[in-house]
Amino acid sequence: xxxxxxxxxxxxxxxxxxxxxxxxxxxxxxxxxxxxxxxxxxxxxxxxxxxxxxxxxxxxxxxxxxxxxxxxxxxxxxxxxxxxxxxxxxxxxxxxxxxxxxxxxxxxxxxxxxxxxxxxxxxxxxxxxxxxxxxxxxxxxxxxxxxxxxxxxxxxxxxxxxxxxxxxxxxxxxxxxxxxxxxxxxxxxxxxxxxxxxxxxxxxxxxxxxxxxxxxxxxxxxxxxxxxxxxxxxxxxxxxxxxxxxxxxxxxxxxxxxxxxxxxxxxxxxxxxxxxxxxxxxxxxxxxxxxxxxxxxxxxxxxxxxxxxxxxxxxxxxxxxxxxxxxxxxxxxxxxxxxxxxxxxxxxxxxxxxxxxxxxxxxxxxxxxxxxxxxxxxxxxxxxxxxxxxxxxxxxxxxxxxxxxxxxxxxxxxxxxxxxxxxxxxx
Length: 427
Prior knowledge:
By secondary structure, the chain is α+β, with helices and mostly antiparallel strands. It contains 16 helices and eight strands. The protein has helices spanning about 5-20, 25-40, 55-60, 75-85, 100-115, 185-190, 195-220, 225-235, 235-255, 265-285, 290-310, 315-330, 335-350, 365-380, 400-410, 415-425; strands at about 20-25, 50-55, 115-120, 130-135, 140-145, 150-155, 160-165, 260. Strand 5 (about 140-145) and strand 6 (about 150-155) form a beta hairpin.
């Protein structure tokens, strides 16, 4: 029995609290803005130049996405300028959520007047941002690594103010060990979690992510994947689930200034793990408590898959979240551990290997495909069908298949990631 007193219960609850954070805009440019705002906070004088070293995956995920509250600007320089000119570092991943029209003009002027040096990083860390601001007589360096808010180094005028391992309010969160996540335990936790322990967290996820999904349906953003799906087959519940999730990404990738609740460091993944379940619960009149429990399950299964892959890679995170959403929908419809395990394996057998080529409008299409696979994985199980161990990367047992997918994304697709980045930077 998993009760609030047990270690696993406390761990799983803490993981949800760490992962379901609010963010406005794509989290990679926002992480740059956060680092820049932190550096500016410590630099008393006017900025004269900016030096930024970033890992390839940061380049990949910042290149094509609009930085919110900048008037449509894209790119590393725009994200950093927004943080320097208008950032409020205390708001973390909502660091540029309060930007006036005057400040938007200031951001553009700053980019025109101040020289930026942007250097591709050479290390192995997939998520790495190292920014130094120079004034006439001073400098401040801030480095974020490993996760979007994890500040590992702060140096002012050659003096180290913070370094990983030292206690500091500047340090990012030390994440709870995810190695104890198991699908069977996640189902048990979803069944037994005290609703008051997750209600506030999930109410915020429902409110934020549904709002941006509706925004993407109501207005044309990006390639309007969500709106297109509804035009094609709006009467189908499955299509509605795909469409609203895709629409949230349509809006978010194209500069919508509404916040989202992220999952595994990604707003797209947060939208994908939650919105399809909200659609199903609304359409079928499912009780709110059941929706809460299904969201717990979907979010944790998405996190579990991403743990082995890593925050950023060539493996599209929408797959993990879409397969998690399929499991959440299965739970809404009464599935037990066996049904959920088969749903996940079936879905992963279909869509594992969709590549991540950065944050941009086509993410919405990948979200739709992944949610489709998640739901179809459940429908296969309902019809007595499954993929078996030995079929490609599928192994007997859900945990073994999750391990294989993690190995594929983290190790097998490492060279793929480098080639994607080379292709993107040659464009």
